[in-house]
Amino acid sequence: MKQISSLAEMHQVRRNLQGRVGFVPTMGYLHEGHLSLVRRARAENEVVIVSIFVNPTQFGPNEDLDSYPRDLERDRTLLAQEGVDIVFMPRAEDLYPPGYQTWVTLEDLPTKLEGTQRPGHFRGVTTIVTKLFNLTRPHRAYFGQKDAQQALIIRRLVRDLNFDLAVVICPTVREPHGLAMSSRNEYLTPQERERAAVLYRALRRAQNAYEAGERHAEVLRQLMRDTLAKEPLARVEYVSIADLNTLEEIPAIISGSALASLAVRIGKARLIDNVWLGATPSTLDTDSENATPGRSTT
Ligand code: AMP
């Protein structure tokens, strides 16, 4: 496995790669969720590039940039075991040198859901992802459904800016009791980690009701709130039933599909999770011009 930090070297190596390139951007401290993306990329491409970069511009001033968990040694071992070709670990001072002033941002999607709690977060995400796409020029890029809003924003970014690549959204990988895997679960004590299963219980309750025919968005939101209220450690930030395309709250009746999502603080961790009602990433893209990248492999 080749390790690259220099931006010039990444460009240089990329120019000489043959075949389809699959790219998985991460912030490291890898778990089975990340590895599921890596395995999918490995299965679908000749070359797999994984980036590890804790992107400072997507963290707010009072967020966990400094304490974000890191273990590069272990990450490299895991990626080598998965047969990754290139691990790209750029340096913040190279990506954001003095005088840096270019930002990529979308108008509406970043203002919803997570955007209400984390202003500026998605501007950092879409900027770094654009830069990483330019550096790695992938045919396919892999994102987790776990961060549904992020994945939907990247999908929109790729369409709007005409990136010649396919965005692949992969299912959320969970602990046996339902908690979505996340590097931030590290902040939880063993007891909190058990209790954090309440997020998925709440989502499942909404999903079961939807599958049984319930279409009133507010009824589904209330089912989630009621479930979360039973867990004294859970401090709810939001509970949402939103349109999967616009991410607007659905005021009354769900007519097609919907995104059920929530953000909850437990102990030191801020946890997010979601399920999709009446849709999957593959059904979402029926019209996708990005589903099959047409560009040649060199
Ligand atoms: P992060 O390192 O948290 O920035 O995550 C890197 C990528 O892994 C993102 O596309 C995430 O959505 C994805 N990811 C994180 N956790 C999971 C999970 N539990 N299941 C599937 N994908 C995940």
Task: Give the tags.
298 residues, alpha/beta, Rossmann fold, Pantoate--beta-alanine Ligase, Chain: A,domain 2, 2 domains, three-stranded antiparallel sheet, 36% helix, binds adenosine monophosphate
Fold and architecture overview:
- The chain is an alpha/beta fold and 298 residues long.
- It folds into two domains: 172 residues, 3-Layer(aba) Sandwich (Rossmann fold); 95 residues, 2-Layer Sandwich (Pantoate--beta-alanine Ligase, Chain: A,domain 2).
- It contains eleven helices and nine strands.
- The strands form two sheets. Strands 1-4-3-2-5-6 form a six-stranded parallel sheet, sandwiched between helices. Strands 7-8-9 form a three-stranded antiparallel sheet, covered by helices on one side.
- Helix 9 runs antiparallel to helix 10.
- It is globular.
- The structure holds adenosine monophosphate.
Average pLDDT for all residues: 95
**Which residue ranges are poorly predicted, with pLDDT under 50 across at least 5 consecutive positions?**
287-294
- Helicity range: 25-40%
CATH H-tier superfamily of the largest domain: HUPs
CATH architecture group name of the largest domain: 3-Layer(aba) Sandwich
CATH topology of the largest domain: Rossmann fold
Number of domains: 2
Category by helix and strand content: alpha/beta
Class of the largest domain, according to the CATH hierarchy?
Alpha Beta
Ligand list: adenosine monophosphate
Reported for the largest beta sheet, the result is: 6 strands, parallel
| Tally of strands | 9
Shape: globular
- How are helices and strands ordered from N to C? EHEHEHEHHHEHEHHHEEEH
| Cα distance spanning the termini | 20 Å
Number of helices: 11
What is the alpha-carbon Rg in Å? Answer: 19 Å
List the strand order in the largest sheet.
1-4-3-2-5-6
